[in-house]
C-alpha cells in the first residue's frame, strides 16, 4: 500500500502545479523534479531483474508527462497536460490491477 503513494502523490503534485501555476519558475521545476524522482521510486516494488512490461510502459508515459509539463509554458497548454495526466493515471491503474498479487 505504501508503494502506491509513490504513484499517486507525484500525479497529484503534477495536477496541482499544472492547474494552479500559470508561469513556471525554478521552484516549480524543482518540485516537478522531486515528484518525478518519487515516481521513479515506485519501481522499488519489483525485483531489479523482474520489472513487468506494464511498469516499464507506465514509467515511460510518466517521463513523457514530465517532459511535456516542463515545456508547457513554451509549447503546450494546461489542457493537454491534464489529458496526459489522465492517460498516465490510466496506465498506473492498469499496472496496479495487473501486478496485484492474487490470493492462492
From TrEMBL:
**TM spans, by residue?**
29-46, 53-71, 77-97
Keywords linked to the UniProt accession = Membrane, Transmembrane, Transmembrane helix
The entry's protein name is: Uncharacterized protein
Please tell me the species this chain comes from: Planococcus versutus
The organism's lineage is:
Bacteria, Bacillati, Bacillota, Bacilli, Bacillales
Amino acid at each position: 500500500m505504501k508503494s502506491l503513494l509513490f504513484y499517486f502523490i507525484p500525479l497529484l503534485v503534477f495536477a496541482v502545479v499544472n492547474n494552479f501555476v500559470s508561469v513556471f519558475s525554478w521552484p516549480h521545476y524543482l518540485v516537478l523534479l522531486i515528484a518525478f524522482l518519487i515516481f521513479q521510486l515506485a519501481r522499488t516494488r519489483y525485483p531489479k531483474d523482474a520489472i513487468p512490461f506494464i511498469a516499464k510502459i507506465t514509467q515511460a508515459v510518466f517521463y513523457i508527462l514530465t517532459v511535456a509539463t516542463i515545456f508547457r509554458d513554451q509549447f503546450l497548454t494546461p489542457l493537454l497536460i491534464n489529458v496526459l495526466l489522465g492517460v498516465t493515471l490510466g496506465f498506473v491503474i492498469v499496472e496496479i490491477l495487473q501486478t496485484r498479487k492474487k490470493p492462492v
